[in-house]
Amino acid sequence: MSSRDLILARVRRALAGAPDVEITRAYRGPSQTPGDIRLFEERVGDYRAVVHLVDEAGVPERVALSLAGRGARRVVVPAGFPPRWLAVADVEAVADDPPLSAADLDAVDGVVTTCAVAIAETGTIVLDTGPGQGRRALTLVPDYHLCVVRAAQVVAGVPDAVARLAPARPQTWISGPSATSDIELNRVEGVHGPRTLEVLIVD
């Protein structure tokens, strides 16, 4: 008998005859409450992200201004990102086909994406590799991430977001720029993700 078998046998003997105990789980479920765009804007800003609230017609100009302000000339554009949103931007759109290497991603000036859902309560953006989002590496390696969030994608809380997401899809949950305070409690940004996150909320 292995050590594992011995331990499991002892556990079974100890539990023999014990009554079944029903565990009550009162998890918070979806609220069905519309997401508060202003709250989302405030919470995203609390994470030191750059936030802009624009209307649909103003997205191309705001994207162009944001990329120009960043000095971004070569940006990764995942398949499915609306071309009209880049129509006036003076940039070279880099496609991820064939897949870019980590070195290639590190050499670009940034990445522009859409998202799957955004959470007002936590200021979190969730990507699930859907149209306009690309694979996870696209938003983890470049130093700058510009994400366009539609108002209809903003939900109230985490349970609402989970209810909209497909559990089998790879997900990236983003709450502000990448940051850590593990080293001597000094905040360091850009360690395991983009140093700068810019969010355009389309109302």
Write up what this structure looks like:
The chain is α/β, with parallel strands linked by helices. It has a single domain, classed as Rossmann fold (3-Layer(aba) Sandwich). The protein has helices at residues 3-15, 37-46, 59-70, 102-107, 137-140, 158-164; strands at 50-54, 74-76, 92-94, 110-113, 117-119, 124-127, 144-150, 154-155, 172-174, 179-180, 188-189, 196-202. The strands form three sheets. The protein has a six-stranded parallel beta sheet with strand order 1-12-7-4-2-3, sandwiched between helices. It has a four-stranded mixed beta sheet with strand order 8-5-6-9. The chain has a two-stranded antiparallel sheet with strand order 10-11. The longest helix is centred in the N-terminal third of the chain and has 13 residues, at 3-15. The radius of gyration is 22 Å and the shape is globular. The termini are far apart. It holds the Pfam family LUD_dom. It comes from Microbispora bryophytorum. Residues 107-202 form the LUD domain. This is LUD domain-containing protein.
